[in-house]
Specification:
Elements: H1 7-12, E1 18-20, H2 29-37, E2 42-45, H3 51-65, E3 70-75, H4 81-90, E4 95-99, H5 104-112, E5 116-121, H6 124-132, E6 138-141, E7 147-148, H7 154-164, E8 169-172, H8 178-186, E9 191-194, H9 196-199, H10 208-216, E10 222-225, E11 233-236, H11 239-250, H12 255-262, H13 265-272, H14 295-311
Parallel strand pairs: 1-9, 2-3, 3-4, 4-5, 5-6, 6-8, 8-9
Antiparallel strand pairs: 7-11, 10-11
Helix pairs in contact: 2-3, 8-14
Bound molecules: ligand TUI.
Ligand TUI is lined by residues 24, 75, 99-102, 120-122, 126, 141, 147-150, 231, 233, 281.
Length: 312
């Protein structure tokens, strides 16, 4: 068990170099603490949740993980980003990851508070900018990921980011087993971030319909919607997401109408399992996620497999 000890395990003080994605509406204290207690880094998603709810989630996680680290993901497009940027300092959160924007303006305050900052980025240019701004590491996220995505694939993006920056790189997008982890390491990554696999964790509190969709998904069952709005998002293929994508394609759904229909659709998926109006975000690797099990079992199995492959 030495090949997956990296600058990421050192930086974060964790056993396995794995981060659980900060999935909006999904990543809460139960899942985050299960991942952190298993030796990875669990994240609470800021999403667009009320600040008092997030304070409670942070405190619950702290109580559940003891001295193990955990983090908070801040979605920079969200209206709560400014407030949450302050809350993580007040609450002594050890790690912050950011998505969907440039966290530059918050960086100095977070660094001063001793927070480890790991922006999620979809391009080499942003990775370089984040390194200059003082990021401790970056997550290079390929278009295979669920949710809001860039254009480049994990296979192309990760080695180019690794070549462009000195700070350690964490690979995300399309990874759901030990083979994916080993492959990411071969590309130069020193850690991985997984979202879709953790949707099937026992501790993940999404609606059973959501879990079923992920478990039953085949290789061709993810679809990107929102290209017309400039915010492409990968989802499970459902009647709703297919209708959105075809409406965008044939022009019958204007970007304004798209925004109107999808407002609140993440919550409808996660909490209500609403197949008619919910956006069930998932990565392109959902076809390989077939079993509900504890997060700890997932992590341990994946690293046994990755270590074996990397030791060859
Ligand atoms: O952020 C994510 N994934 C997400 S956020 C989300 S919630 C949402 N809801 C409705 C519409 C859109 C999103 C669901 N999934 N991943 C990290 C990520 N960050 N992917 C791409 C980016 C990104 C994009 C642009 C990071 C930086 C960036 O910078 C632009 C700039 O400011 O230069």
């Amino acid at each position: 068990m030495i090949t997956t000890k990296t600058r990421i395990t050192d930086l974060l003080g964790i056993k396995y170099p794995i981060i659980q994605g900060g999935m909006a509406w999904i990543a809460e204290s139960t899942l985050a603490s299960a991942v952190s207690n298993a030796g990875g880094l669990g994240l609470i998603a800021g999403g667009s949740a009320p600040i008092d709810y997030l304070r409670e989630q942070i405190r619950k996680t702290k109580a559940a993980v003891g001295d193990k680290p955990f983090g908070v993901n801040i979605m920079l497009m969200s209206p709560n980003a400014e407030e949450l940027a302050k809350l993580v300092i007040e609450e002594g959160v050890p790690v912050v990851t950011t998505g969907a924007g440039n966290p530059g303006k918050f960086m100095a305050a977070w660094k001063e508070a001793g927070i480890k900052v790991i922006p999620v980025i979809p391009s080499v240019a942003l990775a370089k900018r984040m390194e200059r701004a003082g990021a401790d590491a970056v997550v290079a996220e390929g278009t295979e990921s669920g949710g809001h995505i860039g254009e480049n694939t994990t296979m192309c993006l990760v080695p180019q980011v690794v070549d462009a920056v000195e700070i350690p790189v964490i690979a995300a997008g399309g990874i759901a087993d030990g083979r994916g982890i080993a492959a990411a390491f071969m590309l130069g990554a020193e850690g991985v971030q997984l979202g879709t696999r953790f949707l099937a964790a026992e501790e993940c509190q999404i609606h059973p319909t959501y879990k079923e969709l992920v478990i039953n998904a085949k290789d061709t069952d993810s679809i990107v919607t929102g290209r017309s709005t400039g915010h492409p998002c990968r989802n499970v293929k459902t009647k709703f997401s297919k209708r959105l994508a075809s409406g965008e394609m044939d022009g019958s759904l204007t970007p304004d109408k798209f925004e109107e229909i999808t407002l609140g659709s993440l919550r409808k998926a996660v909490q209500d399992g609403n197949l008619d109006e919910g956006s069930f975000l998932c990565g392109a690797i959902a076809g390989m996620v077939n079993k509900i099990e504890p997060a700890k079992d997932m992590i341990e199995e994946m690293f046994v497999q990755a270590e074996k492959l990397l030791a060859r």
